[in-house]
Amino acid sequence: MPLNILCCVKRVPMTGGRIVLTADEGAIETRHLGFTISPHEECGVEEAVRIVEAHGGSSTVLTLGPPEAEEQLRDAMALGIDRAILLQADAELDGGATAAAILEAIEAERAAGTEYDLIFFGNESADAGNYQVGIRVAHALGRPCVTGLKAIAVEDGAVRCEQEVAGGRDVYRVPLPAVVTVKEGLNLPRYPSVPGRMRAKRKPLETRPVAAAAAGVEKVRLAVPAGEGKQAQILGHGPDAAPAVVEVLRSVGVL
Amino acid sequence: MSTLPGRARAVVIGAGIVGNSVAYHLHQQGWSDLALIDKGPFPNPGGSTGHASNFIFPVDHSKEMTALTADSVRQYRELEVFTQSGGIEVARTEERMQELRRRMSSALSWGVGGVSLVTPAEINEMVPFVDESILVGGFYTEGVGVVDSLRAGTLMRERAQAAGALTALANTEVLGIDVEGGRVTRVHTTRGEIEAEIVVIACGVWSPRIARMAGASIPLTPAVHQMIDVGPVPRFADAKSHIEYPIVRDMDTNMYERQDGAGLEIGSYAHRPILHDPEEIPSVEEAALSPTEFPFTQGDFEQQMEHALELCPEIVGDESVGVKYAINGLLSLTPDGMPILGETPEVKNLWSVAAVWVKEGPGVGRSVAEWMTHGESEIDLHSSDIARFWYHQKTRAHGRARAAEGFNKTYGIVHPGEQWASNRDVRLPPFHSRQVELGATFFEAAGWERPHWYESNADLVEEYGDRIIRREAEWDARWWSPIINAEHLAMRDGAGIVDLSAFTIFDIAGPGALAAVQRTAMRQMDVPVGRVVYTPVLSPGGGFKADLTIMRLGDDLFRVVTGGAHGPADRKWFSDRLPEDGSAQLTDVTSGWTTLGLWGPQARTILEGLTRDDVSNEDFRFGTCRTIELDTLRVLASRISYVGDLGWELYVPIDEGRRLWDMVYEEGRPHGLVPVGIGVYGTTGRLEKCYRAFAFELESEYDVVEAGMAWGKVKEQDFVGRDAHLRQREQDPAAILCTLTVDDHTSKSGVKRYMLGREPILALDGGRLVDRKGRGSYVTSAGAGPSIGKHILMAYLPSEQAVAGERLLVEYLGERYPVTVAVADSTPLFDPENTRIRS
Q: Which domains are seen in chain B, by residue range?
């Protein structure tokens, strides 16, 4: 059965080094940083593309953010997503307002004749980490929601979900339409091909303004936890270092 | 972990390929007590070396760059970090094919073997994933290869450490550099202070920031070079090494494609110039990847993806091949595209080794270490000398303007006469408005706008008719006009007025002035007041450091006049050799004086019409200077000539310059005076007289004997390079500078072609001419000789071929033309007895 899939992502700074805050400590200093989406969402995009490849249908990527977030939407379309919606907001919204804006977009889509069978969120955003937008949207839509997924399979009008829990996995089977929030490890996302990138430039992208909403959560300031940043440890020199290297490779599961 | 030494003979800042190489070669030169520090970790401290594409194409149109690259390849091979892959510069257009033929000639000129032009089918055979149907041909270089520059740097550093000559410290950031009495004394770091005799800045894109700590300037601009890596490529699945296919440079799109293990790396110099500030580069800790690997900006790469797809459709069009890595990598650009090497003019013992790419890194390291040790290097580095920059050329705005303009020329077809478009009209002579009225075409020299020819003389082209050789091929005629030749003939028939404002002029004054100029100039400077001496300035090894004129204006006052482009370096050379006791001072008066040249058979008549002073041949001899009154102006007139005609250089304070122009112009017009551009002064007039020019014929690789300028006795007084010069006089020269003329210009297509310079001179059997010191023969200067009706070439020839009447070949854009040695010494082709200038 062909599915209409919506995949929600968030533009976030691509950190890697020590995080620097803006002078007012209200945001991350992004002057030197690129932008991306979270690894969870990358898996959501990949899964959406795979499901449509396997079952037919179409995929839409949606984000709420500044005009520059078009970059993340094109990135997703380069991987195979068919179209994109940019909910353009000048300021960062809290979880409740974000969910409300997404809901409004979903309603508008429905009014225009597009009903989403399956909606993907990352388990949490890479920056704010509020863990709630997907659940809020599901609740408002009155749909089942399974969070923290490490495996998904679409089967006869339902979706089989494997949720990571301590010591194992819980398996749910929920009827469609449904909302899922997924985690890194769900799949191994592909890299964009050059033809994919070129196609992405021509795929449809629709921009809708989002009005600023009253914040339920107020951000006071950010602080960088101690101990962040790159850590390097010299394991040894020459052949003598080999056992220590083997140990590290074992510990990360390569050997 | 090493500890910071309290003092070091030299502190090298920056442990990329350049810093490691400098430290190693200083050790090779016998230095010890060296310290190498970097704010980043070893072996990859996070500079441009760490993300460099690491491939090397050995052929460049620049002799200096080719020599540095060749030496680097030799070192990389010795370190066993060089993998030869071969490389092909491919052409999509006919225009590019011509450029590749020009590359063939440069390879011959500089002695790079293993090169050939290849057909599209041959390209496809070597690189089967290239779509040869879009190509016209290519230039294959066997010796292209890939190096492991991080490994090379590590090996060099470790060798110097193992010998006990070097202490190397990672994660040690420089916080400040102390300067006392104009010299560096100390480096402050996050691990403490080091007393330092010498400090070397090898900090790549950070170099300007570090230099500023000491009050010096290194005018480089960090700019983005985009590259992506796609894979895994099915065709490369079984690749046994990281490079197995020749590297392809897609010249017309400013891009390259190369196999890298299972991937294909695609790099670009085609995007808009993306410039950064050295002060704004993130720290090692803050950087997501490394400080010089910036986030990729996809929007700048759209067109490049299409170009890559056209050339390598099999790989780039494969849906299973993904973009795995993409960065905006930082590299260093300079206002003229050359590195920035040498002791900074601002601070003694503070050296810059910056704007150096991986391909020339080890060669630069060796050369600079030689320079620091012996005062000169085997490879002549004058094009890279940090002292070459004028004040305005060191500004941020100029650096950025030229970096932006130069970036897209990285793979460009750059004509030898090509002019920069950005940041022009910086230095204007007082008669600039007159020149504009006369329709001057301006070329830039040291920031000065200099007329190259005047449209007002266009009628003369018709007048001289067949005596003026037209150039049929667009390339030969680009940045050129037949008006130059017409101006030349008009000057020889009547007179010409030449704007020489771009001269660099500095005075050396004081009780020690004579000793100072004696020590620097090769020729006798203890001459009567009022004499003008044309003299070589030698390097310690007896090569050319400069050639210039010195006027003795008083017992204790000498005025040095030299070219604009090399002026600041000459000024530093003299300044560095002033007596330590302060008994002589150097004052740059370039911006105080303006100079007009007045030459031609009517020059005296014109001058006589303006002055009551005696300017007769009997009273005002050639090679003398004096102040005369021209109407209301006091003018320093110097009777010398670079164009081979009677006349004077007329010097006046710059505010009186326009008045001087107007007076001479109005007085001269009835006598056939025309404005004459630098096309005559720098090329046609000079070549007919076989006058040598610095950076063309004269450079440190050749000596005075070889240049045919060892006339007269060697003065008794000591001067820099004297011992070497005496030795050179004892020996048979390995090569002799000759003047040749072209016998037949007709190409295979029937179009007549005119060489522009730097082409190889070959034996009749097509073999390279190489002298016993291993130097190949090439055209040092080329241009028309309108008065003798020939195209003139100058070239150093091995002594066996340096015989008048010897028949040889010159290769130009892939074809060979017969030439004959006209003179095998400095005897002029035009007016060999010099009766004109001495009349």
A: 7-189+221-333 (3.30.9.10), 432-502+591-688 (3.30.1360.120), 504-588 (3.30.70.1400), 734-839 (2.40.30.110)
